[in-house]
Automatic annotation (TrEMBL):
The chain crosses the membrane at residues 223-250, 257-276, 282-302, 362-379, 446-470, 476-495. It comes from Maribrevibacterium harenarium. The keyword Membrane applies. Keywords: Amino-acid transport, Cell membrane, Membrane, Transmembrane, Transmembrane helix, Transport. InterPro entries: ABC_transp_permease, ABC_UrtB_bac, ARM-like, ARM-type_fold, BCAA_transport_permease. One of its GO terms (molecular function) is transmembrane transporter activity. NCBIfam families: urea_trans_UrtB. It is found in: Cell inner membrane. It is a multi-pass membrane protein. Belongs to the binding-protein-dependent transport system permease family. LivHM subfamily. GO terms for biological process: amino acid transport. Gene3D superfamilies: Leucine-rich Repeat Variant. CDD domains: TM_PBP1_LivH_like. This is Urea ABC transporter permease subunit UrtB.
Length: 511
């Protein structure tokens, strides 16, 4: 840092608030990118200086305590308290200036994303100096996205200048009709009241074009959330589809298998507090084993003694679900537990200013399809899958051919429960983990299985995404509760016409 910049920083601690705007301009000219940490801290209201030697420090919170750090190195400055520092004042005028300064400095960054973000920040601060900077940088800008954002900013400034020729302003407004930036829409709304009728008409036309694009992207956003809900329903119901289809068991404890998977994820994170980014890869097989083994235990101790008595299995599994819920309450307490999301699943993928896809839902969607494909391969290519299909089509004939139906039942129930545990891992990334987590999905899971066709995996896939998308498209107009009711009524009416679902089982034993 040169001596001129250092003297300006010292002057910053002595200058009155009314004189600070001039000092900001000098700091921008002299310091440039080196002073970005200072400008950011000042904008946030966290910039202070030590009263003893006028050294700048930034107030930060560490473990709930106020501490101070060097704005350039980020090192904690030990031995000072709030009594040893004084805050550098900031008002709305200065905040506006600081935003512009930060954006202008970032315009020359080597990172294209930073440059694009800087231009976007400047859309509300387009003064003559900023526009001159953009015009000088525009011809040499190599990144297409940054150049497009610069073009939008220049067009926005041109459209607002009443001194410009009407034809020039109309051309700029026409260009803005392709932009989805909120600041562009706000300016076009103001231009609808422009004194010139042609300008007002052009602004209205551009707004109509923008609003049409926004509506289309809103539909895409709804579709994404529908697919996201469908992926969760798929994971929650796919295990139920094979146990219900093979064994004919109405397993009311299936939701608790999901819950066990979610709590397994929570426990794994407690064991690996410093490896949250990797803990989910441990949690997936662990949840499969915990829920799968619990499923085998339930089948061997209870379900195997109730074959051919569906109502009794319903009551028995309902009782098991209550026992498992109370067991979890006893071990973990009734309070919800929060599972941390790995950093690589956090945030969102911003496609444009009005459409962004959350990464955790995107990963869960892809994960659910991978689990579905893996299960299909197991059932189609493995000996277990062959036995499962044989038992589901004709249990008596399979037993007569030497298939160990008891073993198949146990493995099928364990496999279905294990997949439910994996669903719990996915749900832990979307909601809090609690004893009643599975109860929120058990009814929907049965609806998916019945709607798709009992024991049919393709039907489960289609039904899960159909119901998920239907729910999300109905919710904006009817509300979440009424949307769920309408979907339930639809399924009831559908089953009246097609009792075996979308994809009924085929063969002589299908009846």
């Amino acid at each position: 840092m040169n001596s001129t910049t250092q003297s300006l920083l010292v002057e910053l601690t002595e200058t009155k608030l009314s004189k600070l705007p001039d000092l900001v301009e000098q700091l921008e000219t002299q310091g440039g990118e080196e002073l970005l940490p200072v400008f950011r801290a000042w904008l946030a209201g966290d910039l202070h200086y030590q009263t003893s030697d006028a050294t700048l420090v930034v107030e930060v919170e560490v473990n709930g305590a106020e501490t101070y750090q060097d704005p350039f190195s980020g090192d904690i400055v030990a031995g000072i308290t709030s009594k040893d520092v004084k805050k550098i004042k900031v008002n709305n005028k200065l905040r506006g200036m600081l935003r512009g300064v930060i954006a202008r400095i970032q315009l020359t960054s080597s990172n294209a994303t930073v440059r694009e973000g800087a231009v976007r920040e400047l859309l509300t601060e387009l003064d003559d100096e900023t526009v001159a900077t953009l015009e000088s940088l525009y011809p040499n800008e190599a990144n297409a996205d940054v150049k497009a954002m610069m073009s939008t900013a220049l067009a926005l400034h041109t459209a607002q200048q009443k001194d410009n020729a009407v034809s020039v302003r109309l051309g700029a407004i026409d260009q803005l009709g392709d932009s989805l930036e909120n600041d562009v829409r706000n300016v076009l709304v103001k231009l609808q009241n422009d004194g010139n009728a042609d300008i007002a008409k052009a602004a209205s036309k551009a707004l109509v074009s923008i609003n049409q694009q926004v509506e289309r992207y809103a539909l895409v956003d709804q579709l994404f959330f529908g697919l996201s809900l469908g992926s969760v329903l798929l994971l929650a119901s796919i295990g139920l589809a094979i146990t219900f289809g093979v064994m004919g068991v109405i397993n009311m404890a299936h939701g608790e298998m999901i819950m066990l998977g979610a709590y397994t994820t929570y426990v794994v994170q407690l064991i690996m507090p410093n490896y949250i980014d990797y803990s989910i890869w441990v949690a997936i097989p662990a949840a499969f084993l915990v829920s799968g083994l619990m499923g085998v235990l339930i089948e061997r101790l209870v379900i195997c003694r109730l074959h051919g008595r569906p109502l009794e299995t319903l009551l028995a599994t309902f009782g098991i679900s209550l026992i498992l819920q109370q067991l979890v309450r006893t071990i973990f307490s009734p309070l919800n537990r929060q599972v941390s999301t790995p950093s690589w699943m956090s945030g969102s993928w911003e496609i444009n200013p009005v459409l962004s896809l959350t990464l955790n839902r995107l990963y869960i969607l892809a994960f659910s399809l991978l689990v579905f494909l893996a299960l299909v391969l197991i059932l189609k290519k493995s000996s277990l899958g062959l036995n499962v299909r044989a038992v589901s089509q004709n249990r008596s004939m399979a037993k007569a051919m030497g298939v160990k139906t008891e073993w198949v039942d146990a493995m099928t129930f364990g496999l279905g429960s294990g997949i439910a545990g994996i669903a719990g891992v996915a749900l832990s990334q979307l909601t809090n983990v609690g004893p009643n987590l599975g109860q929120a999905y058990i009814i929907d899971s049965f609806m998916v299985v019945v709607f798709g066709g009992v024991g049919n995996l393709l039907g489960t896939l289609v039904a899960a995404f159909t119901l998920g998308i239907a729910n999300k498209f109905l919710e904006p107009t009817t509300g979440a509760v009424l949307a769920a009711i309408l979907v339930l009524v639809f399924i009831i009416l559908f089953i009246q016409k097609r009792p075996k679902g979308l994809f009924p089982q085929k063969g002589r034993a299908a009846e």
